[in-house]
Amino acid sequence: MAFRDYTSGGKAGRRKWTAFTYGHFITPINGEQALDYYYKNFQPSPMLAEPKANICVFVVCAPTQEKAEEIALSQDMWLLSVEKGGDTRIPSVEEAKNIPLTKDERMKIQENRKRMIIGKPQIVKDEILRLSEIYKTEEFMIINNVHNFHDKITTYTLLADAFL
Which end of the chain is more exposed for a tag (fewer CB within 10 A), N or C? Predict the structure, then answer.
């Protein structure tokens, strides 16, 4: 297994004296390490006096945990397909439910869930606040890659209500 330097993004932010965006949706592994490196090595510039970071994360939020899990199926199947170099179209929940999966694909979906926050509003809020403490930032970019536009709007609306 090759070693991957997860601090490289933090190093790039330091070299450029810029803000730093961490892609938790890409890999939740070593994010804290990358952000710590960035914060410790940040050098002020005329454009940015203090270090500033945000975190990008997949989020699916619905009124109930069960509904959030169901909606997330379309994102699960989309991500599985994209990772295999397949179709980039996001399937509907009904299509996703009918996709036959191998044991390895089921395991990959479970692994991918570590890159996501899925749940009812309080669960999602609590997890965002937990990540906020870990990453030492209050700024998040929420990525909602589900099929149904109404479900996307619901995620953002429920999040706004939970935080306001």
Answer: N
